[in-house]
From TrEMBL:
The lineage of its organism: Bacteria, Pseudomonadati, Bacteroidota, Flavobacteriia, Flavobacteriales. Pfam families: OMP_b-brl_2. Keywords: Signal. This is Outer membrane protein with beta-barrel domain. Coiled coil: none annotated. Residues 1-19 form the signal peptide. The keyword Lipoprotein does not apply. It comes from the Bacteria. SUPFAM superfamilies: OMPA-like. It comes from Xanthomarina spongicola. Residues 18-180 form the Outer membrane protein beta-barrel domain.
Length: 206
């Protein structure tokens, strides 16, 4: 985790040398992710969690042509998953909280080139990589081993820049990989992210 944060810090501080093509800032947001349990022999099912997933981190945005750029989010994510376990003749529900670091590189396409790359609307598409740090159940027991240490997905969505300092993004997220370590059971995910970006470069170099 320290290495990931160090890389993010170096990326952000180095952008001062390329301020015409780089922006950087802070990203905050929430997400709703729905899981589907497969191959569990009906011993476990997933239901909607009672808490909202949240994330925060930093981003860098590099414009490499008139309408195209690359945007990287490095963020801490706290997510929740609720399961119901069936052990004849009883059953019970439990909610797991998962802490992870996410790296999300997006290809960015400006759909309003007349306004400028850092103005108006844009499209985003790219992979999502999640690295699980820890997980606990409602009683505080460690359930990290229930999950794979890494999982992968893809995101597609759009954003709009509000003034120059803020941007709002809505992204669909589809998980390519099984997130569960409990074979032969598999858990697949799909959902959506809502991001609010604060462009610090526009404030510092104003």
């Amino acid at each position: 985790m320290k290495k990931i944060l160090l890389v993010a810090f170096v990326l952000i501080t180095s952008t001062n040398l390329f301020s015409q093509n780089f922006t950087y800032g802070v990203v905050l947001g929430a997400s709703y992710i729905d899981g589907t349990v497969q191959k569990s022999s009906n011993s476990i099912t997933e239901s909607p969690p009672e808490k909202l997933d949240t994330h925060f981190g930093v981003f860098v945005d590099y414009q490499f042509s008139e309408r195209f750029g690359v945007k990287l989010n490095t963020q801490y994510n706290r997510s929740y998953e609720r399961y119901r376990f069936y052990y004849i003749p009883n059953s019970f529900s439990d909610e797991f909280s998962i802490n992870s670091i996410q790296l999300i590189p997006h290809l960015k396409f400006d759909v309003a080139s007349e306004s400028g790359y850092y103005k108006g609307g844009y499209l985003l598409v790219g992979p999502r990589m999640s690295f699980v740090l820890s997980a606990k159940d409602q009683s505080g027991n460690d359930v990290t081993n229930f999950y794979k240490s890494t999982n992968f997905g893809a995101q597609f969505g759009f954003g709009v820049t509000i003034a120059k300092m803020f941007a709002l993004e809505i992204l669909g997220d589809y998980g390519f990989s099984d997130i569960s370590e409990s074979e032969p059971m598999e858990i697949r995910t799909a959902g959506a992210y809502l991001n609010l970006n604060f462009n610090l470069e526009s404030i510092i170099n104003k």
